[in-house]
Amino acid sequence: MARRFPRFPVGHKRSLKHGFTALQQRRYHVMAARLHVFFVQQAERVVARYLGTTTATLEYPVWMGRLAWAPAVKETQPGELLPPEEDRRLQIVMVPDLEDQYIQSSHYAGQLVGADVPDPQDVRVRNFLLSAGARIVDINDTTRDDIALQLALGGERGYNQRQIARGVPQDNFPGLDATVAQTYRNRSDTIVRTELSYANAQATLDTYRTQTVEWVEVQDGDDCGWEDHDDPDLADGSFRTMDQADEYPIAHPNCVRVFLPSDGPPEGEEEEE
Ligand SMILES: [Zn+2]
Q1: How much distance in Å is there from the Cα of 18 to the middle of ligand 1?
Q2: 132-161 b/e with 16+ CB inside 10 Å = b?
Q3: Closest C-alpha among 188, 140, 196 to residue 37
Q4: Cα-flanking dihedrals φ and ψ of residue 66, to 5°?
Q5: Distance separating alpha carbons of residues 7 and 238, to the nearest angstrom
């Protein structure tokens, strides 16, 4: 038997959406700054590996210790500019904040449905961190592709090692340094917003599931589509099953989607304003 939930009045829905968003907003600035620094230091390491020089960035694994949740680091191939240890480094920068975000969002969602906050050791928290960890590897994979492109283009143009490493501004060639540091676009901001949205959505849905919620009412940007931003099936104000929500926790990077517990679409009546 599904639980019954009150239909939230519009003003209340708006403040609940704001509540979920504010939780992410507080963390966003600190995390984006931290990730920005990470990319700058990662660029130093990539350039040092490429040129065979050294950097002042601490060497792995001196500073990181052992982490129960982190997967084993794969063997590094000689000449690899972004070896697997970089995945672990990035996870160490991001995971503590994402875990905390997951717990906080679970607490907020739990207040809506009367659920307790999960223990950090709980399997649902671990499962979230596994999926976040995989997305973090994807972030480095994107950088790996960018590095390969820079190397290929630099080779084609006959640049020397130093030019490939540091860039050739008059040709609009960023080089390895600026490519990895992402100094020319807001990559760290988008990554942080996206990962915080994932944490928030996953925490919300996992929490509702413990209380046998079957439907959610979606709050989203005004013209945000359900499957992607341009989907004509609009997300905001729509009712979705939990399975549908699992499939599309967010529609695009920077998505502000939020899920409220619901009894499903109203029968035989238009949804009133
Ligand atoms: Zn959206």
Answers
A1: 14
A2: bbeebbebbeebbebbeebbeebeeeebee
A3: 188
A4: -100, 140
A5: 13
pLDDT at 186: 82
Peptide bond between residue 71 and the one before it cis (omega within 30 degrees of 0): no
**CA 113–ligand 1 middle distance (angstroms):** 24
Domain extents for the chain? Answer: 10-65+82-262
| % helix, strand, coil for the chain, step of 5 | 55, 5, 40
pTM (2 d.p.):
0.87
Mean pLDDT throughout 170-189? 88
Q: Chain centroid to CA 243: how far?
A: 21
Q: What are phi and psi of 262, to 5 degrees?
A: -155, 160
User: Measured in angstroms, how far is the CA atom of residue 243 from the centroid of ligand 1?
Assistant: 18
Rounded percentage of the chain residues whose pLDDT exceeds 70: 88
Determine the straight-line distance between the first and last CA of the chain, rounded to whole angstroms. 28
Residue 59: pLDDT band with limits 50, 70, 90: low
| Residue 223 alpha carbon to ligand 1 centre in Å | 8
Question: Ligand 1 centre from 221 Cα, in Å?
Answer: 5
**Which residues have CB under 8 Å from 49's CB, separation 6+?**
80, 81
- Please name which of 144, 98, 125 lies closest in space to residue 210, comparing C-alpha atoms: 125
176 close to 154: Cβ distance less than 8 angstroms: no
